[in-house]
Amino acid sequence: MGVFQSFFDIFKKNSEIELSYDFDTLIDEYNTLYLKHLAIDTCAEFIARIFSRSEFRIRKNGQPITNEWTYLLNVRPNLDQSASSFWQQVVYKLITENEVLIVLSDDDQLLIAESYVRKEYALYDDVFESVWMKGYEFKRKFPMSEVIFLQYNNNDLNRYVRGLYEDYASLYNRMVEVAMRNHQIRATVGGKEGRGFDDKLQKKAQSYIDKLYEKFRKDSVAIIPMQQGLEYNELTNTVGETNQSIDELKKLKRQFVDEVADILGIPSTILHGELADLESAQTVLNKYCVKSLNKKIEDELNAKTISKAEYVAGMEVKVVGVDKKDIFDLADAVDKLISSGGFNRNEIREEVDYESIEGGDEFYITKNYEKAKGGEEVNDETGN
């Protein structure tokens, strides 16, 4: 508000300022930034909301275990956030800023750094210093081995958006200009009966114009009285233009969002809430977007929350999200795999993100998969 207030103070101090002040440049910059941020924000928020539904499971040799990290990752990472809001913020920041730093405070809170300085070393841990969070600066330094540091590596996205918004910006701004011109109220005020404008009539005309402007600006339906000696003629003509301009703007915005979504692996049908071919779109989303993000975060958590000795002993962190397989949809396939002796129950359970069970390593094979013995009579109806 202060920026706009100081901006309008210019007009108060200098009533002679030229109307050709570079408003067009300001509007152009706003529109290009709006398009760029709209596309990235829409896609980043979509992915962040999906990941916020994930569950973090810590296992040892296939069996679930519970420790402090289980609580921090799944329930309450810090005093101010739940797990879902925390991870939504993490993923949004990861996509929009290409990286995110999470530090563990002295009282065991997971905190998302707002800014930091990274010092890189060839043979030692990189160090993060000047770490800020909500106006507080950590006085100590954080080595790479003690933080969770995620990088999205979406350089292609950054380059694409930079080139894309430059191409679309001029077209979009042109559309805005045309729409504004089509909806602008244009009128003339003149003296009746060929009268010119003397000083008195000029002041009267200016007062009349000011009142017209205020009336048209504030009221959707404006009725104004006619002034004696003045004639008001409106030149505005927007017939047949409104729907076309609005539709074109909507299509352009959607086009911009769709291009960014393609880079991130988001099917546009899901992004826009379309139900056509939803199952196929969900499969594409899980395969090309969700799984890679889960793997990236899963690897970092395994590297930073579990020691080498613990990992070798069979401990691991698994991220289970919306890409989790539906066991009811797979029931027939699971039955075939187990009954044919190709896989045991624990191998199947691991594939669908369930812990192993006692006796699940045994293999079974049903009679219809067994080799028939020669010379036996087989009943056509019972198969015996």
Automatic annotation (TrEMBL):
InterPro entries: Phage/GTA_portal, Portal_HK97. It holds the Pfam family Phage_portal. This is Phage portal protein. It comes from Enterococcus durans.
